From TrEMBL, chain A:
Keywords: Cell membrane, Membrane, Transmembrane, Transmembrane helix. The chain crosses the membrane at residues 12-31, 43-63. It is a multi-pass membrane protein. It is found in: Cell membrane. This is PLDc_N domain-containing protein. Residues 23-65 form the Cardiolipin synthase N-terminal domain. It comes from Paenibacillus nanensis. One of its GO terms (cellular component) is plasma membrane. It holds the Pfam family PLDc_N.
Automatic annotation (TrEMBL), chain B:
PANTHER family: ABC TRANSPORTER PERMEASE (PTHR43471). This is ABC transporter permease. The chain crosses the membrane at residues 21-39, 70-90, 111-136, 156-176, 183-204, 233-255. The lineage of its organism: Bacteria, Bacillati, Bacillota, Bacilli, Bacillales. The keyword Transferase does not apply. Coiled coil: none annotated. GO terms for molecular function: ABC-type transporter activity. One of its GO terms (cellular component) is plasma membrane. Keywords: Membrane, Transmembrane, Transmembrane helix. It comes from the Bacteria.
Length: 68, 262
């Protein structure tokens, strides 16, 4: 009983973190797939965005896109 | 330079920020940074217990940090990662426009160099102060949730002081971005300046009280409540504002000298 309460609290506290990371990942993925050309192979960026937490999408936003 | 023209240019900056998603991802990253600091502080004992290679039966007593200490920790996170992200996001502010020819397209219209630079600067400022507020408020909320309440006045004062320091560095980014052709060069010159100033105030706090970098120290003091406005406080604010104005004027003069690639 006590443990489930603790778990519920933990989920409540962590939910915003997970949601924000998810949003960042989705935006970065959409941008990456829609982009005509990325700096470096597109597959590499997709993998980085998917598997590197937080820093992956940020790195793509900062360095992945070619300025047109 | 009319205000209406300037507003039009600022709106163009906001549109550009929206199209490149900067308007969305930078505040989100700041919010995440702000949340992470109280969270890791709160769960540090558990993290050490689960992940650290502690010998059996070892007991570590960790003092529970006060809410103000957690917020000060958040500010120093913003000061490192946040500043790096902002500087990298805006490193091409002018040089990018100049290299792509967008600057020439704007500047052939009856737009003064100063209003072009000011629009860039105002666009950066709205994003910076907004993102910082979102991140810091998120941290404040989580500190209240997990630790204790921190009063509003120290929170606000430390926010403004830290924002002023960020404003100074981003103005330096803008200046270097007008001066140098390479975007990366601009970002690293500005970050180098930030590092240099911070190191100098670390080495000789007595003699560097007037420097913009001592604003970060004042912000930590402000949030922890032990703040008395000394003479160097007034100096550092005055010098910072002066340098920001000089940075904007300097960028505008540099742009006048080389508005486009020849």
């Amino acid at each position: 009983m006590n443990e489930t309460l603790e778990l519920n609290k933990l989920i409540g506290i962590l939910a915003p973190v997970l949601i924000i990371q998810f949003i960042l990942m989705i935006i970065a993925l959409v941008q990456c797939i829609k982009a005509e050309e990325t700096r470096g192979p597109k597959v590499m960026w997709v993998l980085i965005i998917l598997f590197v937490n937080l820093l992956g999408p940020v790195a793509f936003f900062l360095f992945g896109r070619r300025k047109v | 330079m009319s205000a209406v023209k300037l507003m039009t240019l600022v709106r163009k900056e906001w549109l550009e920020q929206l199209r490149s998603f900067k308007l969305i991802w930078i505040p989100l990253v700041f919010a995440l940074l702000g949340i992470m600091q109280p969270l890791t502080n709160y769960y540090m004992p558990v993290i050490i217990e689960k992940a650290g290679n502690m010998p059996e039966g070892a007991v570590i007593e960790m003092p529970v940090p006060s809410g103000a200490e957690v917020l000060a920790g958040t500010l120093s996170q913003f000061g490192m990662i946040g500043l790096l992200i902002l500087a990298l996001a805006f490193m091409g502010a002018v040089s990018g426009d100049r290299n792509s020819g967008a600057a020439s397209l704007v500047l052939v219209k009856p737009v003064s160099f100063l209003s072009f630079i000011l629009s860039k600067w105002l666009g950066m400022m709205t994003l910076l102060w907004g993102a910082l507020l979102i991140g810091y408020a998120a941290s404040w909320y989580y500190t209240w949730l997990l630790f204790e309440t921190v009063d509003f006045a120290p929170f606000l004062l430390s926010y403004v002081l830290y924002g002023l320091w960020f404003t100074f560095i981003l103005t330096a980014v803008l200046l270097f971005s007008t001066l140098l052709r390479s975007a990366a060069g601009a970002a690293f010159s500005a970050l180098g300046l930030a590092l240099l100033l911070t190191a100098l105030s670390g080495i000789a706090p007595k003699y560097m009280g007037w420097s913009p970098s001592s604003l970060t120290g004042f912000a930590y003091e402000a949030v922890q409540g032990g703040f008395d406005a000394s003479a160097s406080f007034g100096w550092s604010i005055g010098v910072t504002i002066l340098l920001i104005a000089a940075g904007i004027a300097g960028s505008s003069a540099l742009l006048r000298r080389q508005p486009a690639l020849d």
